[in-house]
Amino acid sequence: MAKKSPMVVDLLVWLPIRGLLFGLAWMPERLAYGSMAALGRLFFRLSGRRRRIVLANLAQVFGETRSEEELWALGRRSSGEIFRVLVDVARTPRMVQRKDIDELLDSEGTLEAQRIAETLAPGVPVIICSPHLGSWEAASVMAAKVFGELHIIARPMANRFLQNYMLKTRSILDQHILPRRGGIQAIRAGLRSGGHAVFLPDQNQRIRGTFVPFFGKLASCDRSPILLSWMGGHPIVVGSALRVGHGYRFRMVLSEVFIPRVPEEGQREEALYAGILQLNQAMESLIRQAPEQYFWLHNRFRTRPPQEGSAESFSDTSRQPEARPPETPDKSAEAHGETDDPPAE
User: Domain range spanning residue 322?
Assistant: First the structure.
């Protein structure tokens, strides 16, 4: 475990962050979102490493249909859109407390989600999966509005003041943030008590992932949603909250609702692969609807299958993700994989 910074250091780092969040929450909407989008576009231009990741990801998905100039423009725009999510983080608690949230959510998408929720078996908790698309901050608000109590795994913030702020704001939204270590067991308990689980399973899994195609290329994928669905028969709902316009207004878009096939004897590996593939394809469908709002900054394909080698310099090859899941679902689910970047959830 990394040693914590002294409290005074955390405080000195936290104060300007808190000032930024306060400013973004209260300044005019057009100014707040416009300035953060401009900062994101500047980041794309100045950060050579992240720009190369963005362009490589876009080339993997759109390389055969778009020119280099079009990919550059899409990468630049998407970087600006991602920075707008910070404004969502700052403004959402105030919107919820003022009960303004309903006026800022597209009614058609919300009604569609409510209709789907009504078709599910009464009293059966669901597993909600969303890629880092649009505003995952707004998506969690909309999911809580439609489904109710949510349980979400997130890596703890290094700064104790920022961590306390995030926990406090999430509690307003009927969300329970769980640590990675032991978080899956807490989510199972939440599901048994009638709550719902939330995953953003589109990030690279450095350890204990399963290699399944994502946009046509093998990626190390999180298997926890499929394993949890098997354990309790929980439906998986795949959706996102897409931004409408350039401010705090969103439309819920659902791609698929499915229950992964429970494996028959001797077919566990194939069933797990098929379930993750179905989840990936559902997320791909969402991303293609609004590629300019996706988190292309993430190095999704960093960890490679053992036969390809890896872009990561592991001294211990046993830390590489396994091509197939281990035999015991509970243990593999408990060790919810780590990601390269701090999750943006």
Answer: 100-334
